[in-house]
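FAQ: What does the model actually see?

It sees only this:
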Amino acid sequence: MVEASEVQRGLQDVVALESRICFIDGRLGRLLYQGYDIRELAERSTFEEVAYLLWYGRLPTSAQLGDLSARLRELRALPAPLSDWIATLPPTTAPMDLLRTAVSALALFEPEETRPGPSSIGGAQRLTAVLPTILGQFHRQRTGAKPLRPRPELSAAAYLLYAVLDREPTELETRALDVALILHADHELNASTFAARVTASTLSDLYSAVTSAIGTLKGPLHGGANERVMELLAEIGTVDRVEEVVKERLARHERIMGFGHRVYKVEDPRATILRRWSEKVGAAKGNLHDYELLRKLEEVVHREKGLYPNVDLYSGSVYALFGIPPDLFTPLFASSRVAGWTAHVLEEYDDLRLIRPTAAYVGPTDLTYVPIAERSADAGPSPGRAPPA
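And it is asked to produce this:
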């Protein structure tokens, strides 16, 4: 029997598998995709190029990148029945619920690409191409905007902005989102990626694995932190109130979202990059209000708790400057992370072993069966849940 003292709660620091996709050095604040530093990728690359890198393990040639970009543009359209289904949804539908169900339904139209194995690369490309279309169609119909139309000339970042905002994005907006997509494309064995790999390890299909990942990302302890950051900024209002609000929250033992990380012991390198883009986009739009609040928030939280910012601190401020509604922040995250999720699923298929950890049992071991007529309602151990009425 495994001793409870041996348990690593939340699997913290447990090495579950080998991977070539992503490396995090939490002590030095480094993040690598397939050996390339995230700082250099964010400075010089594009989301399409990073997707190729994650899937194939190397940077593409110009011809290879051109072929992939063309393929992603071809795959943006939704099957008509799925598009018709989205049109029936009430505007109150939670976008993450929409995304989870639409991805699962999309598998019905991709029989060849759902099979576990090398052919699943087609499914990876389809999902990466089509998630912005799913979000764009739903958001446009709930806001009464004109229907989404194909825009094959647009890059992945520009198309995502166009699909959601119903307008032409500026060059600065497109590049800022491109960087954000690169930064969010993968992050080793986070909860949603691990969920995808567990599903894939059963030899289930890629669409099921990504559905598992989206369901995991929906949980507020994994996704949605940048939305909570923006709610905090709205509560604070002005720079002179930052210290007061932070101290009140800390006194109530409440977590300040956007700070601290399970792996990084120093500043998350993605936060470093997004801080600059928050300032750059804010300055271009003549609105540095949120940026200035966030800088003051950094100062106070680090002084009071010694915590560094993570990727969620600044990402929401950038999206808000674009005009993206907060309930689309996490689906937008998924539109990027799907490249990483699918890369991990493909890697899992290449080196398959059913993921099946062990639990330390802490319950009783010596109970004796009592006939039902002799049982009392309060007999035996209770797991802390009320029985059915």
